[in-house]
């Protein structure tokens, strides 16, 4: 669902994919190869939201702000399921974990990883390549080269998803039985723990 608001019409690049069950409202700019998942609410009603190329905003995320604010997700920002970004700037190639909350005027430095369920209070500045966990948040160490490579690989999987959705996603009726020739999905990405084994 794409909505104009108060004279602002969202701008969505043709290579991006916004799921039909996501909501994008008002002063929103969405770049190339961006994936917006079902249930996401991207609300540019009181300020501007810029989602740069190759980002993903997954299922049930909220991106919003106080009036007069710009929210910026820089290239390859990866916003995990259920996360909330409220009036913050998320740096290039950052991972925000599932159900994390990033509050107003927070600056998350490039190549940082924010752990699932973390809470970052308003006005905090997270240096580049920080590994952040907890509520309230703590910076526990620097992101290693191996960890950053794993994050980047995961984001590249999401960069392919918009094209795959545009090519193959369609509403359908469910099958009532599992067909004998049902294909097996290939495994092309490992969790962090699997990668380290």
UniProtKB/TrEMBL annotation:
Gene Ontology terms for molecular function: transferase activity
Disulfide bond as UniProt keyword: no
SUPFAM superfamilies in alphabetical order: Trimeric LpxA-like enzymes (SSF51161)
Stored Gene3D superfamilies: Hexapeptide repeat proteins (2.160.10.10)
Alphabetical keyword list: Transferase
InterPro entries documented for this protein: Hexapep, Transf_Hexapept/Carb_Anhydrase, Trimer_LpxA-like_sf
Keyword Transmembrane helix on entry: no
Protein name: Transferase hexapeptide repeat family protein
Species this chain originates from: Hymenobacter guriensis
